[in-house]
Amino acid sequence: MDTNGVSNGGSTQGKPIKCKAAVAWGPSEPLVMEEVEVAPPERMEVRVKILFTSICHTDLSFWKGENELQRRFPRILGHEAAGVVESVGEGVEDLAPGDHVVPIFNGECGSCAYCSSIATNLCKSARVNAFKSTMTLDNGTRFSVINQSTGTREPIYHFLNTSTFAEYTVLDSACAVKINPAAPLEKMCLLSCGISTGVGAAWNTANVSKGSTVAIFGLGAVGLAVAEGARLRGAAKIIGVDINPEKFTKGKEMGITDFVNSKTCGKPVHEVIKEMTDGGVDYGFECTGNLDVLRETFVSTHDGWGLTVMLGIHPTPRMLPLHPMELFDGRRIVGSTFGDFKGKTQLPLLVDQCMQGEVKINFDGFITHKMPFSEIREAFRLLEEGKSLRCVLRL
Questions:
Q1: Residue 91, by phi and psi: left (phi above 0), alpha (psi -120 to 50) or beta?
Q2: Taken in order 110, 114, 120, 123, is the CA torsion positive or negative?
Q3: 276: phi then psi, degrees, rounded to nearest 5
Q4: Which of 22, 43, 44 is nearest to 33 (CA)?
C-alpha cells in the first residue's frame, strides 16, 4: 500500500470493493452509513479513493428533495472532493492508479465540439445534468447494497457525475482532473465546486476589471468565492448583500468592502446600492437561487453596461423575473456553470499557480469545520443552520 491507502499491487483492480458510504434513502431522511459495493470501472471510467469531501448547499437541497423532478433514491450525494485514482477502465490514457485527482460535476471529454470550442465549458456527454443518476456508458450504476429485509442486491444511484460521500466512487474519466501531487488535497477538494464556481464567475464569466464595482447577493461559500475572485482582480468596491450580518465578518476576509442587510435597510436593496455607487454596480452576482433576489441583482446593476451573473440553483417551474424590454437599457444577464472553467484543461494550471504563490486564493478561510466522515449528519446540520461555510470530512 502507498501512503494514500491505494494498493500498488493492483489487488483490487478489476474487482468490486466494499466500503462505507453515506446513503440518502429518501427526501430529508437521515443519511445512513452503509456498506456498499463499488463495481470496477468500465470503459472510460475511473475508480477513485476519496480522501476528503465537503458539503455544498446543492447537496443539501437535493437531500431535501426540494425539486420533485430531480428526486431519485437511494442515492449517494456529494460533489466536492479530492482523492487518489485506484484503478482505470479500458481506454483511459490520461489517468493512472496513484494519480491525485479532483472530481468535477461538469466534465470535459476533450474530443466533442463543445470541448473544442472556446465559447463554452460544457461537454456533449459529461456536462452537469441535475436529472442524471447513472453512468454515461450504459445508464447503469456502479453502486449497490444488500437489502437487509429481502437479501437482494439493489442499485444505488449516482449524483452530479461524482457521488463523493463514499470511500470509493466511480467517475467518467472526463470528470476526474489530475492535479499536482504536492497540492494539499484537504484544500483542493474545494475546487470541485465552490471556489471554482465563484472565483471563475468573477474571472471568466464577468471578467471583473480593476477599479470596478461589484454586488454579491448571498454570502455563502460561492458568494464569498466571487468576492475572493473580485478582490484578486482589483475591484474597488465589493458590496455583500445578505440577511445575516455575521456574514460580513467573514466577508471582509474575502474582500467585501461594504455590507447591506436586505432585511433592515429600510428600502429596496437596489435603491441602496444605486445610492452607494452612483447609479448601480458594474457587476452583480446572484448566489441564492431566489428569483426575487435575482430581480434585485439585475436592477442593482448600472444601465448601459451592467452585467448580472446568475449562480444560484433556481426552482422549477418559475421563470426569469424580467420583462424583455428591460434588456434594451444595456443591462445583460448570463448564467455561469462551474465558473466557466474547463475543468481538465484549466484547473491543473490553477492548482500549480496556487502552489507557486502566483494566485493567492484564501482556501483556509472557506474551511470553517473539519470532521471525520462518520459525522456527516452533523456537518449537514451545521450547513443547514448557516453555521458553516465548508465542512471538510476526512474519509
A1: left
A2: negative
A3: -75, -20
A4: 22
pLDDT for residue 7? 45
> What pLDDT does 2 receive?
44
**Can you tell me which residue has the cell 462518520?**
374
Strands in 332-335's sheet, in edge-to-edge order, are 258-261, 237-242, 213-217, 283-286, 307-310, 332-335
- Integer Cα distance of 347 and 106 in angstroms: 12
> Which residues are part of the catalytic machinery?
56-58, 79-80, 109, 112, 115, 123, 127, 193, 390
Provide the pLDDT for residue 55. Answer: 95
Is the backbone of residue 117 left (phi > 0), alpha (psi -120 to 50) or beta? Answer: beta
Q: Which residue has the cell 507557486?
A: 356
Nearest to 205 by CA among 120, 113, 82: 120
Q: What is the DSSP letter of 214?
A: E
Q: Which of 303, 299, 302 is nearest to 269 (CA)?
A: 299
The pLDDT, as a whole number, for residue 68 is: 60
CA within 13 Å, CB half, 335: 11
pLDDT tens digits for range 235-280: 999 999 999 998 999 999 999 999 999 999 999 999 999 999 999 9
Question: What is the pLDDT at residue 3?
Answer: 41
Rounded Cα–Cα distance for residues 242 and 82 (Å): 30
Size (the chain), residues: 395
Positions of the chain with pLDDT lower than 50, given as ranges? 1-5, 7-9
pLDDT, tens digit, 9 for 90 and up, residues 263-274: 999 999 999 999
Instruction: Please enumerate in sequence order all residues whose Cβ is within 8 A of that of 144, keeping only pairs 6 or more positions apart, or say none.
Output: 36, 37, 39, 153, 154, 155, 156
The CA-atom distances, in angstroms, between 327 and each of 192, 211, 240, 290, 357 are 33, 25, 24, 20, 41
**pLDDT score at 151:** 83
- Give the count of alpha carbons within 13 A of 233, CB side only: 28
Q: CA 36 to CA 146: how far, in whole Å?
A: 8
Cα separation of 144 and 115, whole Å? 32
Question: What whole-number distance in Å separates Cα of residue 276 and Cα of residue 305?
Answer: 17
- For residue 350, CA distances in Å to 89, 174, 347, 378 come to 27, 18, 5, 32
Q: Taking the complete model, does pTM exceed 0.70, yes or no?
A: yes
Do 50 and 167 form a contact (C-beta atoms < 8 A)?
Answer: yes
